[in-house]
Design goal:
alpha/beta; Rossmann fold; N-terminal domain of TfIIb; seven-stranded mixed beta sheet; four-stranded antiparallel beta sheet; 12 helices; 11 strands; 21% strand
């Protein structure tokens, strides 16, 4: 301060001017740095924003999509709850489902989408039975909870990149589906020749909150060999002053055919119940704009009841009637007094022995004495053996000869007889 006072008036003036210039330059530098910092955070006019689709723009793009909502609500009313929606987004389908009074759970990967969905639910009603869960649809576990109906609307399954991710998703679905529940999938038919789009205008919508006009464009590239698709949604946002800013939301996914869906469902433990080509449940054709699959869990088949054990008579040949010709020699009882040779003679085909008779030793003259009643005393084995041994010309003892059995072309002598079961 003393040095300033010692300076001349002219020198003091120059000093103050220099200090002022320095302060101005410093202020300008601060303003420039602050402006650069703000411009980095704000989107450039006419340039693309980071590749994120804002939830508000998503709602503007899907505001007039309601055919699938009606289908999902009808399905939920017929099947019942609780209901799980995969890829809930901002609650476009979840909230109408909750209005039916069912308990609904919305699973979504994006936290920004869930925040907007919760805000919309609070603005509607506090009595809605809806739960929001942040998670990946290819790997989720809800604590052992199961659902009567699980929905995958609005091509959410096509947002997965390959069949491996689809299989993981379907396995998680099978783990959370009730044994009598249903799983509904909605995808686009794979019409490769019509899918590739360079850049097309989709529609123009008005944002009531900001009073801006939003023009929406879409581009799409398809690989038909690997069934891959890549594309983006482009938003041109025009404010009331005529200035425009651009936002781009890229996406990628894959397409799936009916046989592939059937195989993936079966691999996950489910089977296809119905296939529709529209939300009016029309038949799926080559001209259909939708592919809607309705699946259910594969019911575990009960083991086949064991057949009753066959009766003892089925293992052994049926016993021949008293007056019928025996089919095998095993059915003829051998006489107790006969020798081994006599037994073989008696067991000849076409000859039957009544079980109520016994054999008697033939007389010396060689004539058979015929059958005797069962009350007569049987000849002892010693007498029979001595008689047959002492008289070589004696014939072996025989019983009463039964009438010959009618011959049939289907059975050979000594074969097992198969009787036709009665009806």
């Amino acid at each position: 301060m003393k040095l300033v006072l010692l300076l001349a008036a002219e020198q003091q003036t120059l000093l103050f001017v220099g200090i002022g210039i320095a302060i101005v330059l410093l202020a300008v530098l601060v303003v420039i740095l602050f402006t650069r910092l703000v411009m980095r955070r704000r989107p450039k006019a006419g340039g693309p924003l980071p590749p994120v689709e804002a939830p508000e723009l998503y709602d503007l793009r899907t505001a007039d999509v309601n055919d699938d909502i009606r289908f999902c609500v009808e399905m939920a009313r017929s099947v019942g709850g609780p209901v799980l929606e995969l890829g809930a987004g901002t609650g476009r389908v979840t909230l109408p489902l909750a209005r039916t009074g069912l308990v609904v759970t919305g699973l979504e990967t994006s936290r920004l989408m869930l925040q907007r969905a919760k805000l919309k639910a609070e603005q509607m009603s506090s009595k809605l039975h809806v739960e929001w869960v942040e998670g990946d649809i290819t790997n989720f576990s809800l604590g052992g909870r199961t659902f009567r109906l699980i929905l995958a609307p609005f091509n959410v399954l096509q947002e997965l990149r390959d069949l491996n991710e689809m299989e993981k998703c379907l396995r998680c679905v099978a783990d959370h589906l009730e044994p009598t529940g249903k799983f509904v999938v909605m995808v686009q038919p794979p019409r490769w020749e019509n899918l590739k789009v360079e850049r097309r205008f989709v529609k123009s919508v008005h944002n009531p909150r900001t009073n801006e006009i939003v023009n929406i464009y879409q581009s799409l590239d398809v690989d038909p060999i690997w069934q891959k698709l890549r594309g983006e949604y482009e938003y041109e946002v025009w404010d009331h002053e005529g200035k425009v800013r651009q936002m781009v939301a890229p996406f990628e996914g894959s397409y799936i055919t009916c046989p592939e869906m059937a195989l993936l469902l079966r691999a996950a433990g489910m089977q296809m119940e119905a296939v529709y080509g529209s939300f009016e449940r029309d038949k799926l054709t080559a001209q259909s704009k939708q592919m809607i699959f309705v699946a259910r869990p594969i019911q575990a088949t009960k083991p086949a009841a064991a057949l009753p054990a066959p009766a003892a008579a089925s293992k052994a040949p049926a016993k021949a009637p008293a007056l019928a010709a025996p089919s095998t020699s095993a059915a003829i009882p051998a006489p107790a007094a006969a020798s081994s040779s006599a037994a073989k003679s008696v067991a000849s085909p076409g000859t039957g022995v009544l079980p109520e008779t016994t054999a008697k030793t033939a007389p010396a003259g060689g004539k058979s004495s015929g059958a005797e009643p069962a009350t007569l005393p049987a000849v002892s084995a010693a007498d029979a053996s001595s008689s047959s041994a002492g008289k070589p010309g004696a014939a072996p003892a025989q019983g009463v000869q039964s009438p010959p059995a009618p011959s049939t072309g289907r059975h050979s002598t000594g074969g097992r007889r198969h009787s036709k079961p009665s009806r």
